[in-house]
């Protein structure tokens, strides 16, 4: 069973991830991933390892805002998962685009800290 301290640490991980994405801080994002992380796009090839993960998840424009809702965290002492709704607003080619959907993070404790081991998502259809 996941302890309250672990849930708080995972919430802090989520907050750090959002700050790093908003700041386009690749080095900060890299520190939040396990060494063997995987990005699993809904309709594309899996990207394995930190560099491949970050290359594949790079936003097609500047991220202006990220909102998270309906977040649920569960797991155990060394593995956890988080599901949530997201809404991301981007600046692209002089305009703005907002995308929304659900994401799932699989996390693992590494070197005493929670890190993202895998991430996947699905987009809402309009």
What does this entry look like structurally?
This protein has three helices and six strands, in the order ααββαββββ. It is an alpha+beta fold. The chain has a single domain (4-123), classed as Nuclear Transport Factor 2, Chain: A (Roll), CATH 3.10.450. A six-stranded mixed beta sheet has the order 2-1-6-5-4-3. The chain is globular and about 45 Å long. The protein starts with a helix and ends with a strand. The relative contact order is 0.21.
Q: Taking Cα atoms only, what radius of gyration do you get, to the nearest Å?
A: 14 Å
β-strand percent reads: over 45%
Overall CATH architecture: Roll
What is the string of helix and strand elements?
HHEEHEEEE
Percent range of helical residues: 25-40%
Average pLDDT score: 95
The fold-level CATH name is Nuclear Transport Factor 2, Chain: A
Q: Pairing-aware structural class of the strands and helices?
A: alpha+beta
- Identify low-pLDDT runs: none
**Total count of helical runs of at least 4 residues:** 3
Topology, please?
Layout: H1 4-22, H2 26-31, E1 33-40, E2 47-48, H3 50-57, E3 62-75, E4 79-92, E5 95-110, E6 113-123
Summarize this entry quickly.
The chain is of the alpha+beta class. It has three helices and six strands. Strands 2-1-6-5-4-3 form a six-stranded mixed sheet.
Keywords:
126 residues; alpha+beta; Nuclear Transport Factor 2, Chain: A; six-stranded mixed β-sheet; 3 helices; 6 strands; 26% helix
């Amino acid at each position: 069973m996941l302890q309250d301290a672990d849930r708080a640490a995972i919430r802090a991980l989520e907050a750090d991830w959002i700050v790093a994405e908003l700041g386009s801080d690749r080095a900060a994002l890299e520190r939040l991933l396990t060494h063997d992380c995987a990005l699993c796009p809904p309709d594309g090839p899996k990207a394995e390892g930190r560099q491949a993960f970050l290359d594949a998840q790079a936003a097609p424009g500047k991220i202006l805002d990220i909102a998270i809702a309906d977040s649920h965290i569960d797991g155990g002492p060394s593995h956890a998962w988080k599901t949530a709704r997201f809404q991301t607003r981007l600046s692209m080619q002089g305009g703005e685009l907002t995308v929304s959907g659900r994401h799932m993070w699989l996390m693992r404790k590494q070197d005493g800290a929670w890190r993202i081991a895998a991430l996947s998502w699905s987009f809402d259809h309009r």
